[in-house]
Structure formats: structure tokens, C-alpha cells
Design a protein that fits this description.
Blueprint: H1 13-31, H2 35-38, H3 44-57, H4 60-82
Length: 83
Amino acid sequence: MKSNPLAIRGSAKSAHQPIKRGTKIRRRNSSVNGRTSAQKPVTGSEVATLLRKFQKMLTPEEHSQIAAGIDEARRRMAHEHLH
């Protein structure tokens, strides 16, 4: 992929500064303060495996408590958005 140069030779400094500032902002946002590069991406199959293991560790009572908490949170959010 071809990339455009950040500055054009002979361009005025006033034109160069916004380009440079935008580049800094994009670089900062893409790295999320350096945390993204340290974390390895997780595939969907790995997440599914972990969720299955976690679900087997839960008792039916714990599972129903979590489900009730999720339902309550969804109801509260829906109510907040309506009012």
C-alpha cells in the first residue's frame, strides 16, 4: 500500500502543522497508550473454549444469578434511554 508523505517539500509550516498534529493523534489512539501491542489477539474459537470452561465451573444457582443481574441491567438501561 502506498502511503502519502506527511509533509510536502517547500510547504508552509502553517500547512504542515495540522498534518503533523493529526498524525500524532492517530498514532496515540491506535496504540491505546501502548497496551494494544502487549496483548495478543484472541480468536473466536479460543473465546468459545474459555466460555465453555467457565460455564461448566458455574453452579446452576450462580448461572441464574448472573442471568438475573444481566436482565436487571438491561431493563435499567432501557428505562434510562426512554426517560
